[in-house]
Amino acid sequence: MEDHQPQSVRVERRPVSERESRRANGPDWDRYADEYQATHGAFLGDAGFVWGPEGHTEDELRVLGDVTGLDVLEVGSGAGQCSRWVRTHGGRGIGLDLSHRQLQHSLRLDAETGVAVPSVRATATALPFASGSFDVVFCSFGALQFVSEIDTAVAETARVLRPGGRFAFSVTHPTRWMFPDDPGEPGLTATQSYWDRTPYVEVDDATGVVSYVEHHRTLGDWVRLLAGHRFRLTDLVEPEWPADHDRVWGGWSRTRGVLTPGTAIFVAHLPD
Ligand SMILES: C[S@@+](CC[C@H](N)C(=O)[O-])C[C@H]1O[C@@H](n2cnc3c(N)ncnc32)[C@H](O)[C@@H]1O
């Protein structure tokens, strides 16, 4: 549902395994990274923290709270903009991403800003850290909607967090999956079932290989997932479309944003 589609692809809804999702999404983000950073880099800010296409920042929403002195892991960190913000606010931000090319952009921004984000190439379903390493784990439209084995990803998050740790993540608002991914009027008419979890898949026309995958979970699925790993859901932020915001990002636009939520930010805590 991103605005990438560099090659000629056909869109399908069908089941895809974790292996297939990862094999598609890593190379897809490698191919797309240069264009993604060129298109959205200025909006994100080299050391900025934006929670979604509506443009709400962590400075505004305060979803993570005070990060001073905390160990903070960003999963699906891309070029590390958010983790760089964490570092400039006193936290020990670490990045993790599946895409080599996204991480090269992170290195580039480390050099350009002078704020380095130590980062690792890995997947959300196998976090290469000891148990209890972090006070906060977060994703800003990071890995979670690209992962098939979401139960494993949430279990891994719970494992690397310390008691009382915070998990905060933004994803495409689950209600958006009912609508075509179109920023205009056609994107306002529900055409598919909210309860249809069949993944969105792009298949390369030339090779027949799956080239991109996104997974849908309903609001109830997310609550159940978090509760199943002992998280207590403490907030669900549904940012409203700002009055002065006219940027179109993929299927996100003012036309749709003033009527229906585009982003959901879940905030959850482990017991002390
Ligand atoms: C929409 S970008 C968001 C990146 C960053 N938060 C931002 O706002 O620019 C999604 C990122 O998730 C990464 N990603 C996708 N699947 C992943 C996985 N299984 N594990 C870790 N990262 C993944 C992609 O490589 C990409 O950099």
Automatic annotation (TrEMBL):
Record's keyword annotation contains Transcription: no
GO molecular function: S-adenosylmethionine-dependent methyltransferase activity
GO biological process: methylation
Keywords: Methyltransferase, Transferase
InterPro entries cross-referenced by the UniProt entry: Methyltransf_11, Methyltransf_Superfamily, SAM-dependent_MTases_sf
Species annotation: Nocardioides cavernae
Residue ranges constituting the Methyltransferase type domain according to the UniProt record: 73-169
Methyltransferase keyword on record: yes
Region called Disordered, residue ranges: 1-29
Cross-referenced SUPFAM superfamilies: S-adenosyl-L-methionine-dependent methyltransferases
PANTHER family: METHYLTRANSFERASE, N6-ADENOSINE-METHYLTRANSFERASE TMT1A
The protein's name: SAM-dependent methyltransferase
